[in-house]
From TrEMBL:
Pfam families: YjdM, Zn_Ribbon_YjdM. Signal peptide: none annotated. It comes from the Bacteria. This is Protein PhnA. The lineage of its organism: Bacteria, Pseudomonadati, Pseudomonadota, Betaproteobacteria, Burkholderiales. Residues 46-113 form the Protein YjdM C-terminal domain. Residues 3-32 form the Protein YjdM N-terminal domain.
């Protein structure tokens, strides 16, 4: 008796494991075992340092001096960043900071205004 999940595309029960990937021999679909569960959890919620939910277009304030890699520039505490965009990855905020330019920030270093 197989304990592998059915194929998410065609619902076939004939799925098999190939390393870290699951494969359906009927439709040829390949997926990671946790991918279906992660997709069902819903959209990712990004929160600031105080726990407030962030959304695209919000204005945030930097709560810590941030050194910029490969540059001598520093984003100072209290810098206001307008019209943020949420992104996937380690740096989950894309923004443009006056005097610095476009960059990515981590949500743990900002607070919502």
């Amino acid at each position: 008796m197989s304990t592998l999940p059915n194929c998410p595309q065609c619902q076939s029960e004939l799925t098999y494991e190939d390393g870290a990937t699951l494969i359906c021999p009927e439709c040829g679909h390949e997926w990671a075992p946790g991918a279906a569960a992660a997709a069902e959890d819903g959209p990712r919620v990004i929160r600031d340092a105080n726990g407030n939910e962030l959304k695209d277009g919000d204005t945030v304030t930097v709560i810590k001096d941030l050194k910029i890699k490969g540059s001598s520039l520093v984003v100072k505490v209290g810098t206001k960043v307008k019209n943020i965009r949420l992104a996937e990855g380690d740096h989950d905020i894309d923004c443009k900071i006056d005097g610095v330019g476009a960059m990515g920030l981590k949500s743990e270093f900002v607070k919502k205004v």
